[in-house]
Amino acid sequence: MANSTSASLKLTVQQTGENAGTWGQVTNTNLLILEQAIGGYDALSVASSPTALTFSNGALSNGKNQVLKLTGTISGNVIVTIPNSIEKTYIVQNATSGAYTVTFKTASGSGITWSATDKGKKILYSDGTNIEEGITSTGSLITQNITTSNLTVTNSTNVSGITISDNVTAVNNITTTGGDMVDQIGEIRSVPINSKTSAYTLLATDHGKFISTTAAVTVPPSVFSAGQTVTIYNDSGSSFAITKGSGVTMYWVQTGANADRTLATRGVATILCVGTNTFVITGGLLT
């Protein structure tokens, strides 16, 4: 029976009794092809289009490399093809010059296209019919399976939907500059202060803050939601009241009683919203 050729890498499949005296040479070539498929690299000019990668039977061929760097100055959209029926994985970089698209596909099937400005690397595979994308990267960051609808990153690394500038600048509510993380309230490793010197009714914007005050505080209804907190510090020489607004329930952690509370001089109380218009209060020098 005569030798045959493998479907994807075009290795020589030797039959018993074939290649007398040259078996070792054919085997060595097969091993070199396998090495090429596992770790081979080729910088391939694709200035002309279409550019067809080769898969010669029983020989090293540019289409068998694991890593392909597509180069050349292109003056129009470029198509690079591999033969039909090949099953193989690739790491492909679009390193061409020129603002045109580059498409990597099978001869008769579909493929993956780099945009005119995309010069990144892609991990691709052929299923024998089409070229599909496995994991994509732009620059050095892998982006597939990262949801970044509210985060943008620019400068040193640009990934779809993410922007990194200096340390990190994130849109929505958190930014970092020079190592400091700041959200819409303030620097997140410190508790923002809201100083008052007269009677004060808490506002929704007081969530996550502490109120340094010398006068009474009222906890209003329909302002806070479950999980939000406010801390109150008595910065005066006398006690003052922490009063429930109309329709507010405020349980004291020490007894479970629902009532207004008194915060003594230099005392601290934390109020936690646990449900609609329902709070628990705890602290030191609180009665």
Give a verbal description of the structure.
The protein is mainly beta and about 290 residues long. The protein has 3 domains: about 5-140, no CATH class; about 145-190, no CATH class; about 195-285, Jelly Rolls. The chain has 1 helix and 26 strands. It has one helix spanning about 25-40, and strands at about 5, 10-15, 40-45, 50, 65-70, 80, 85-95, 100-105, 110-115, 120-125, 130-140, 140, 160, 160-165, 170, 175, 180, 195, 200, 210-215, 215-220, 230-235, 240-245, 250, 260-275, 280-285.
Helix/strand-derived category reads mainly beta
Please give the oligomerization state of what you see. single chain
Biggest sheet character:
9 strands, mixed
Overall mean pLDDT: 86
Question: What is the number of helices?
Answer: 1
Taking pLDDT < 50 over at least 5 consecutive residues as the criterion, the unreliable ranges are 137-171
- N-end to C-end Cα span: 98 Å
- Give the number of DSSP strands: 26
Radius of gyration: 34 Å
Number of domains: 3
Estimate percent helicity. Answer: under 10%
* Percentage beta strand: 35-45%
Order of helices and strands: EEHEEEEEEEEEEEEEEEEEEEEEEEE
Outline, from the CA principal axes? Answer: rod-shaped
